[in-house]
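Quick one: structure tokens for this chain, please?
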Amino acid sequence: SAVAGTYNFGPGSITGSTGAAFNVTGGAAVLTYTGSITQTTAAQALVNVAGTHTGTLTFSGALSASNGTGLQFTDADGTYNFNGTTTLAGGDAGIDILNGSAGSFTFGSGTTITNPAGTAFNVDGTTSAVTANITYAGTITQNTAAQRWININTYNTGTISFTGLPSAYTGTTGSTGVNLNAVNGNVTFSNGLTLGSTGARMTATPLTITGGTGTYNFNALNLYTAGVTALIATNADGTINTTSGTVDATGATAINISGPAGITTLGVTLTTVNSTAGANNVFLTNCGGTAALGTGTLSGATGNAFDVTGGNAAVTYAGTITN
């Protein structure tokens, strides 16, 4: 607690902890650990950092949580590197970067999160906004009903980058996808984002954006749903960018973007947009920028199939519309 200095811990193992297996509170310690850490205790962290720590922690060994809460950061303001194998699979073992954290976080390609009881990757600044820069290169599997792959809430000024392939994000249709709420920093899925498929459609909206002034880069965006809207953006005063992809909703609206008076700016290019129901198949209001929605089929809407109101967006669609 509140320790400074530089520490190089070589090979070794940490097991059997009844509390957090590796705990750092405050201070400015610069620490490198090449050994292994195992957490099997319920409700306890594999690694816990809190209390405005400002040093550097680097882990390059095998970290594993088969129970507990995984990697926990609260008001963590240092630099955190997970360069080895980090396996989070059991209990509620995920990643939580919470209130006031302003550090730099790197989770390498050896990081895996599998079926936590709650949100898998959670950035939440409800009490004090998170401003950290975060890179996540690992995989996320979420098969827990009604729980999210990724939740980013009250996030300011920083950049969050998910650099894994689209196949890095998998799970069952009843989990609840990606949520961006009050995100004023930038979020990028470098290699795209795919949630659902034609054979396994999401039954909860896979991508939700609410408020915020940030720039959200999804690149190749593929969303497949049954009975629920695929993409909902409400009062987002930022920019939504895609470069390609398919948004395909059976029995529901494909895209619903309702901007504020300040306009939701679109830099959206999609290959295909399909919808077979909903109040509208596509609904865009108070949007600017460009939306090139490709081809596809829109049908079965109870209101206007293709509804664009307010704003000044340049919108094109080359598919068929039946109303």
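The chain is about 0% helix and 50% strand.
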